[in-house]
Design a protein that fits this description.
The structure is a single chain. By secondary structure, the chain is α+β, with helices and mostly antiparallel strands. The chain has 1 helix and 2 strands. A two-stranded antiparallel ribbon has the order 1-2.
Length: 67
């Protein structure tokens, strides 16, 4: 398992971000063409827990594989 932690300053305080990768790897952009720039609205949606990018196909997960 790999975990990613980050801090975001919203002007009033910090927000802690935490992401666990159960499959053991993180798909990070390999070059600037694969990176996505977020607008202020998309960032707000992301911090609210919404998906700011187009919906991707959700992969099936084996029962009991979460923990």
């Amino acid at each position: 398992m790999i975990a990613f932690k980050g801090l975001f300053w919203d002007g009033e305080g910090f927000i802690m971000l935490y992401k666990r990768f159960e499959n053991g790897h993180l798909s990070w952009p390999r070059n600037s063409n694969e990176a996505k720039e977020l607008s202020a609205q998309q960032l707000d949606w992301l911090l609210q827990g919404l998906n700011p990018l187009p919906i991707r196909k959700i992969q099936a997960v084996r029962p009991g594989s979460f923990y």
